[in-house]
């Protein structure tokens, strides 16, 4: 281990990161946390204005890009251009994701296709593009986003759960293939976190918060956690920071579960 790694194994000074889904929630928090640790962060999101707002909140150590992760060519172009322009690519965080609800017997094929296209294939495209560069350069770290849904069976989120289970296996397979090149691949599997995705249960049509509905929705879920907590985006962002840092240099092919203890697989 080098002196700089020993001095601050969690530091990310001079590293270059691409974060998808950076326009809001966990993606935005992750971009901000990585930048605060010293990284230059490309904030990518299908909502270009939201990506720009995240980059603006960070300042000079961030850039913004409009990116639809279902567009393979666009994903490759962003990642390859970032590496060329910044001279390196050290970190990829695949956080872009969507959800469609419905009973297994009723899920339209279009909904299944849409969820798989973003959550799994979007992650796959970015992993391919980044891992090729990282392998050629002799190192790097990729963090994918799974979900607590891979550990439990919940009604009406089959498409989402299946897509995230696929991300888990992709993470493990890729880690096994690229470790020899110094590239690490891990995933986070968040539990319930306050984001726009979970907010669908208590946001009003105008986007404002219905505090009474939120309290009612969260009360039974808090009981499932030994900590009695609902997570915040920053809780996941700090887990990601650990995984991409030198503090986790001996960690690959793992699924880190910041979920308040809701699921304890054994």
UniProtKB/TrEMBL annotation:
EC id: 1.1.1.-
One GO MF term: oxidoreductase activity
Q: Which organism is it from?
A: Streptacidiphilus cavernicola
What the entry lists under InterPro entries is as follows: NAD(P)-bd_dom_sf, Sc_DH/Rdtase_CS, SDR_fam
Protein name (record):
SDR family NAD(P)-dependent oxidoreductase
Q: Name one Pfam family in it.
A: adh_short_C2
| Oxidoreductase keyword on record | yes
Q: EC top class, in one word? A: oxidoreductase
Show the PROSITE patterns listed in the entry.
Answer: ADH_SHORT
* Highest taxon of source: Bacteria
Concerning its family, UniProt says:
Belongs to the short-chain dehydrogenases/reductases (SDR) family.
The entry's keywords: Oxidoreductase
